[in-house]
Fold:
Amino acid sequence: MNVKIFKNKFSKCIELDKKLAKFTWFGVGGNAEILFVPENEETLSFFLKNKPKTYKVLVIGAGSNLIIRDKGIKGIVLVTKKLKNISIDDNGIISAQAGASDAEVARFARDYERTGLEFLLGIPGTIGGGIKMNSGAFGSEFKDILIDVTAINLSGEFRIFSMKELGMEYRAIGISDEWIFCKARFKSASDNKKNIEAKMKQILRLRKTAQPTGVKTGGSTFKNPNGHKAWKLIDQAGCRGLRVGDAIISEKHCNFIINLKNSSAQQIEELGEIVKSKVFETSGIRLNWEIQRVGMK
Ligand SMILES: Cc1cc2nc3c(=O)[nH]c(=O)nc-3n(C[C@H](O)[C@H](O)[C@H](O)COP(=O)(O)OP(=O)(O)OC[C@H]3O[C@@H](n4cnc5c(N)ncnc54)[C@H](O)[C@@H]3O)c2cc1C
Structure:
């Protein structure tokens, strides 16, 4: 199908050749050939059923764990920001759509006096990104709170995965990239608002002391290798404050790369690769990227 015909069909939710930098925390990245922002799950399903088969789809939630490369993305970029409903049923089960922010879900749980989701306040992503990354903080991760997830494949078909079927492990998930997460159900327990508030305040305090805030970053750059802390290995390799252009290793938390102002995606990636080799030279340990790097170089 010709891209312009496709655009006319989905005119309300599609833009062509759209700059992606503002969709990521790093503030870098080229353009999306087709940017698709569905209003609801029905539009999403209809779109996937009608899209040209050869077009790949990249999903962006809050873009807090993403480097989009400077030459952008060929194909479709789906942004989930409008899919953000959160609800609770009579049994206290909380449901949230993929584009709901983790922090909003944590606050929703607090308002309904449900405990167990407080750690979400410390993760600046969406529910969809959190499932994909099995994100975690302060001793809890997504796999600890998920009941099940409704996903849709590239042919527009829905399927529900139980938490076990998702094969979640440390910052990874076991199902194929063809699944786009639409919504999830979470378990929680009842507690009073005061206790929940206290836990949330403590999380915010800890985050402020340990991590750089108010900066352009992608969070932890590398996964912690088994039995090691990535930040410690990076520090021991002398990389604290290391810089390529405007990309710099944070002085406060050296597993964070910061875009000081006008860094390119290439500079951020290059800095990461230099850190990887320095860590390997000093410790013999190979770091693996936690941040997802996508698009054309
Ligand atoms: C300041 C800062 C602090 C952070 N602290 C933490 C932390 O404490 N713990 C932690 O685990 N992470 C942390 N992160 C990383 C990041 O916030 C998490 O990984 C978050 O869950 C990513 O969610 P997102 O919506 O931003 O995903 P994105 O960055 O938009 O995407 C990440 C990946 O998920 C995929 N994806 C997104 N939505 C969907 C969907 N609906 N269906 C299928 N795939 C999808 C994307 O294609 C991509 O591969 C931090 C990041 C920053 C910037």
Remarks:
- The chain is about 30% helix and 25% strand.
